[in-house]
Amino acid sequence: MVASIFTQVLFDKICDQLADGKSLREICEKKGMPNRKTFHVWCKNSQELKAQYDEACLDREDAIFDDILYIGDTAKDSKLGKLAMDAKQWTLARMNRKKYGNHITEEMVGANGGPIQIERVRLNMAPVEELPE
Question: Which InterPro entries did the record assign (predicted)?
Fold first, then answer.
């Protein structure tokens, strides 16, 4: 029987495992856990639960980042280690593009971070008769 009755203890347990780097799929497939849809319904029905889930997801990013460093330092098989690191890096970049994505953003701003000021300047120049060679 799949647990589908909400308890704060169960919700906390799920969030703790998320914060430790586990996926929601992996957690919800365990005996005694609700299915993912039930978990998401709980989050949608309560701002407090949604905030707790969001915080656990942010903590999961840190756990995944830590896993990448650990794999890089301890992998016995370099090919398998690189594969695991690349998969985690790809996932992390999609979870938080701004923090972990491989992109460059350029912004143009005016003085003191304000809007760019555009000025039109008309130059009055005397005509050049002939340019030296």
Answer: Sf6_terminase
pLDDT band at 100 (very low <50, low <70, confident <90, very high): confident
Give φ, ψ of 15 to 5 degrees.
-65, -35
Q: What is the pLDDT of residues 8-55, one digit of tens each?
A: 999 999 999 999 999 999 999 999 999 999 999 999 999 999 999 999
Full set of structural domains in the chain with CATH? 8-101 (1.10.10.60)
Whole-angstrom distance, CA of residue 124 vs CA of residue 12: 73
What single string gives the DSSP state of each residue in 3-44? --S--HHHHHHHHHHHHTT--HHHHHTSTTPPPHHHHHHHHH
Q: Given this model, what pLDDT does residue 3 score?
A: 52
Query: Which residues make Cβ contacts (< 8 Å) with residue 15, sequence separation at least 6?
Result: 52, 53, 55, 56
Contact 59, 18 (CB under 8 A): yes
